[in-house]
Amino acid sequence: MIEIFIKAGHAHKQRDDAVVLPLLEGRKLTESGKALQEATGKALPSFLRKFDLSGSFGDSRMLYDVDGTFSQRVMLVGAGDEKKLTLHKLRVLGATVARKLNKGGARDVSLYLPELAVRGASMAEKVQALAEGVWLGLYTFNRYKSKKDDNTRELRSLTMMLPSGRNLDEAQDAVARARAIAEGTNFARDLANEPGNVCTPEYLGNQAASLSHKHLKVTVMDKKAIEEAGFTALLAVNQGSAKEPRFIVLDYQGGKKNDAPVALVGKGLTFDAGGISIKPAAQMDEMKFDMCGSASVLGIFKAAIEMDLPLNLLGVIPATENLLGSAAYKPGDIISSYKGINIEVLNTDAEGRIILSDALAYAAERKPAEIIDFATLTGACVIALGAHATGLMGTGEEIKQGLKVSGDYTYDRVWELPMYEEYQEQIKSEIADIKNTGGREGGAITAACFLSRFVDDIPWAHLDIAGTAWNMKGSEISAKGGTGAGVRLVIDYLLRKSA
Ligand code: BES
Ligand code: MN
Ligand code: ZN
Description:
This protein has helices at residues 31-39, 43-50, 87-103, 123-137, 168-193, 201-209, 223-229, 232-238, 292-306, 352-365, 379-385, 397-410, 443-452, 487-498, and strands at residues 3-8, 18-24, 28-29, 60-64, 73-80, 108-111, 157-162, 216-221, 246-253, 262-266, 268-272, 312-322, 334-335, 343-344, 370-375, 390-394, 414-416, 434-435, 460-464, 470-471, 481-482. It is an alpha/beta fold. It folds into two domains: 3-163, Leucine Aminopeptidase, subunit E, domain 1, CATH 3.40.220.10; 182-498, Zn peptidases (Aminopeptidase, 3-Layer(aba) Sandwich), CATH 3.40.630.10. Strand 16, helix 12 and strand 17 (414-416) form a beta-alpha-beta unit. The structure holds ligand BES, manganese (II) ion and zinc ion.
């Protein structure tokens, strides 16, 4: 990741490859733009006229050799109507500007965007949003491109210019927070984007172990240890795979010794072919992303370590492939689970809830204060909410309320689906304790109903990230592929909890 510095100062005194100035709707300059305009003897307004820049949001123009400046370039970026600015719009501006600069020749640039006014937001919040945007927007996954882009003049450093020296310290902390969040998110994206032949259960275990730290203990159980522990539901799904499963446990001690942890559970299905209930061929490659729940959990732990989060966390990740083979589990099979609940398998493609049942039961047994799980669980959730909101369900009313607040604040958004008692009917089995499918109606909800049987009375929230965890078109702040959904959301939730 590039460097981001904080400074207070004036645009016309800056000796950089580029200075970036906001332009508001109606071609209005902000403070630093006006100062530059004076220092340059009104050179800037004539440029404005010449290039028909309107100031509409996201529009930008690079000006060269502006009289009176020491910088080679002045980049004007449209910020739209200042009254309509939000923290997320700053995040998007950060990403837009960084991506554009990265393609040009400027290496060290200064950014005069923190002076934009966002209703209700502090300087630190604005700086954090901008920095997140820069680091998230610049993310790419190109390790398998043997010929790298021959852009040798990529962006190297970016300095956020503050209107006064008063907020330097809090802005510095904000950049550190943004760095931890972006590193966690980009780590989750990397794990997501790795193909299924690389990102195997064993690989997930190694990646988890690589996070080990003085406050973090990582335990990776192999197949033998999983058999001994009795995670039989995970083993059933693993039967069709030639690769061993893993059961990963992370214990992070950032809080007081005896405080109950927040448990984070993530689906680590490294490739989901559907099993004997095989999926159609079209876009099946995307099922390498079926481990995005585990990627979010690992990303959150990475960020937590980096920012010294003052809370205890428990992470639990069941990892396996869901493939076909002569040993694979079959529709009609009845399997046992760690909790002792017998599951009738009616569709081997509803495997996520099966492996999560063992992980949730184990997490609940550890008596955490609350449980949050992350899973690319159902196609039904994609149909219900599309790509713009994660499905939120569960029994923990306070957790859900907190996640809604954090979702709106971070723009890593969630939307609640109901879990009325009546939905539980759909997973009643004739010959076992429960069945693993509840039919097409309310599919995201009946999947959550299944999970609910394994969390005892621990307050619990379930995040169905099937629609949000990856994006084949890319977005304003994410490259094509894994998005790292859930990392910003839950880090913010945990930060508020610890405050
Ligand atoms: N990993 C899939 C869910 C999924 C599908 C995520 C498409 C993202 C995009 C999950 O394991 C699955 O296959 N679920 C089935 C459940 C059904 C058989 C009850 C589904 O949603 O179709
Ligand atoms: Mn499946
Ligand atoms: Zn799956």
